[in-house]
Amino acid sequence: MKDKNVLVVETIDVHGIAVEIARGGSGPTLLYLHDGDGVEQANPFLNRLAATFAVIAPSHPGFGASALPGHFSSVDDLAFFYLDLIEQLDLRDVTLVGASFGAWLAAEIAIRSVERIARVALVGPVGAKLNDTPDPDLTDIFSLGEADLAKALFVDPPGSPDYSKLDAETVARMTRNREGMALFAWAPTLCNPKLRWRLHRIKRPALVLRGVRDGVVPLHYAKAFAAALPDARFIEIDHAAHFAHAEQADACAAHVVAFAGQRGTK
Amino acid sequence: MKVWHFTEAAYFEGWNQDELTRRTLRVEPPSRMVDPVIASQLLNRYLDEWELADELGLNIMVNEHHSTLSCMTVSAILPIAMLARRTKKARLLFLGIPTTNRMDPMRIAEEVAYVDLVSGGRLEMGLIKGAAWELFSSNLNPVRHMERFWEAHDLIIKALTHLDGPFAWEGKYFNYRKVNVIPRCFQQPHPPVWIPGHSVSTARGAAKHGHVFATFMAGKMAKMLFDAYRETYRDTFGQDAPLDRLAYLAMTAVGNDERQVNRLVDDLMQYPPSIGQTSPQYVNPPGYASPADNARMLIKSGKANATFSLGAIQTIDGQPLAGDFDRAAYARAGVLFAGTPPQVVDQIKTFSEAVGGFGHLLSMGHGGPMNHENTAASMRLMAKEVMPRLP
Fold first, then answer.
1. C-alpha B13 chain-centroid distance
2. pLDDT in tens, B329-350
3. What H or E segment, with its residue span, contains residue A19?
């Protein structure tokens, strides 16, 4: 099934920060937080979700075409930014969905306040350090060569683009996304060591999804992440790696719809 | 023109030893492959050659890198501190301390002051940002690293020049309760500052402070960088930049005859290919270059990772360096000054005139597998026959 794109992009101002937001669909509010490669690759996933939800998918400050304030330097800044955005748009009973880096961000938002959040769905969550040793839980994506990184993210990698054939704006968004990812996730690598001790505050139903061949988030980590949440279900996605929401958009969207108790439309 | 003897103090014995080190010398090689006895001999030999530089009337330059077989000096201040005791006349330049990759500018200021005192005021203080791949060792963020560099720079200068007791520093990147460098440095207000770079913005940044600007093996680009420096210096200080504000690094090989020169050059030219021996993901971590610059590079190359190659260097007349080794072309590019003393004098003079002049030749007189005997012979000719004939 190929949906036509129902997402419309606009720019809004959140406390002086110009933010690009894709919106589409109708129904209960779903706020989507994108992974480190930007909102674009979630388009199929979001269009499925837009059949059931009113989808709101911003580009985080520093990603896509969203501005980056000079003082932003941690996920802490992004979490407070999103609390502002949720308040400004008066979003309520939000289904908060995040993938990879966006799942980390969703957790950082929800530990601060779940007042306007109804439930949380996380695809391949990173962001917490869950073991007590100096050894990392997660794969250091910044140290992987291009081919190894692609294999960690996709079962069937889309292949390296010929950048010389892409338009300048597309490439500029890519390099901006990568810079944003380094700014927020470089060190400690892909995590906030404090997050683990705060996850209990997310007192809302939660869903944790993981691609069975996720090369960034190990199985035991994803299960431990789910176990650290007060009320979470854990489901694995077949034929998917770290970017399950991109490679298995239908399956991931169906799980989110079922989790939210909404009637999906095909 | 002042001449400074430089070597990267490589562990050449570890280069190209297996599949891994043919691909990369940096970040990844296991230290198991370093023979402690050979490394000990090499480090002492390099220190001997710097001491020889002092005896010959050359000045001394050292650098610093991390987790690499290309350079064993893990802290530039270490050899400089030893040489401060063992040398008499040479100016002692570290170029430099990777300020972007060091977490503690106050410690840098303290060590600078200490070594400047021991040397009786012969220290020259190079502040560098550090190689991109070293961000994986330091774990400091690639994003906004130049901002962090300049804040560290400002803090170091203030720490060295503030003589009125402790001050607090609440910066964007550094936070100190009491900065108070005791003892203070010998040279007042502080040792000369050097900043190397390959960009117009770094050249202009150095010029605004009146610091020495150095560029390495930049070929034709040196003219653009030096011109930018001179322009900003004039705008800032209302007078022309003295020649001693500009420095240029090239490989050098001086021999009495063609056979000697060829032997030196064969060894020395094993250095340039090693620059590119780094796994692509470490060469340009995201955020190190600006998103706009990265986008331009991607569109131009078409590929995800473009690495350094000598092909990017142009001769003064705008010719790219050919893949084949052509000593004359390398000399015109200012990458290598090699020949008999009169030839080398001529090459340096010609290149210097073409880029508008510079006051310091940073002479990389050792590289690759060059042995001590050949290195010392080339250094002697550089000091006795070349240096006196330079402008």
1. 22
2. 788 789 999 999 999 999 999 9
3. strand A17-24
Paired with A30 in beta bridges are A55, A95
What would the two tokens of residue B167 be? 């001050």
Domain ranges of chain A: 8-259
Please name the member of A71, A168, A183 whose beta carbon is closest to the beta carbon of B287: A183
Burial environment of residue B353 by CB neighbours within 10 A (0 to 12, 13 to 18, 19 or more): exposed
Task: List chain A residues with CB under 8 Å of B145.
Answer: none
Number of domains in chain B: 1
B220: tokens are: 């034709």
Q: What is the mean pLDDT of chain B?
A: 93
A6: three-class secondary structure by DSSP = coil
Range of the domain at B160: 2-389
Q: What are the backbone angles phi and psi of residue A236, rounded to the nearest 5°?
A: -100, 145
Is A4 a residue whose pLDDT tops 90? no
* CB nearest B285 (choices: A71, A168, A182): A182
CB atoms within 10 A of CB B373: 8
pLDDT digits (tens, 9 = 90+) for B290-332: 888 888 888 888 776 654 455 567 777 777 775 555 777 788 7
Radius of gyration of chain B (CA): 20
One DSSP character per residue, B365-377 reads ---TT--HHHHHH
Q: Does the pLDDT of residue A38 top 50, yes or no?
A: yes
pLDDT of residue A266: 41
Whether residue B53 has pLDDT greater than 80: yes
Which residue in A223, A136, A226 sits closest to A188, CA to CA?
A: A136
Distance from CA of A195 to the nearest CA of B (A): 20
Least confident of A216-220, B96-100, B101-105, B322-326: B322-326
User: Is B143 within 8 Å of A183 (Cβ atoms)?
Assistant: yes
CATH class of A8-259: alpha beta
What token pair was written down for B21?
């080190």
In chain B, the residue whose alpha carbon lies closest to the alpha carbon of A167 is B299
Q: What angle do CA B330, B333, B338 make, to 5 degrees?
A: 40
- Range scoring the smallest mean pLDDT among A105-109, A115-119, A192-196, B271-275: B271-275
Rounded Cα–Cα distance for residues B199 and B222 (Å): 10
The pLDDT assigned to A115 comes to 98
Which H or E run includes B125?
Answer: strand B123-128
Interface test with B, best of A63, A166, A171 (most B CBs within 10 A): A171
**Closest residue on chain A to B294 (Cα):** A175
Of the candidates A46, A41, A52, A42, the residue with the CA atom closest to the CA atom of residue A7:
A46
For the segment A83-108, the average pLDDT, to the nearest whole number, is 98
In angstroms, rounded to a whole number, what is the distance separating the alpha carbons of residues B311 and B157? 38
d(CA B120, CA B124): 12
Q: Do residue A166 and residue B141 have CB atoms under 8 angstroms apart?
A: no
Q: Which residues contact A3 (CB under 8 A, 6 or more apart)?
A: A44, A47, A48, A50, A51
Structure token digits, residue B29: 């090689």
Full DSSP string of B198-238? SSHHHHHHHHHHT-EEEEES-TTHHHHHHHHHHHHHHHHHS
Q: Which residue of A has its CA nearest to B299?
A: A164
CATH number of domain containing B73: 3.20.20.30
Confidence check on the interface: ipTM exceeds 0.90, yes or no: yes
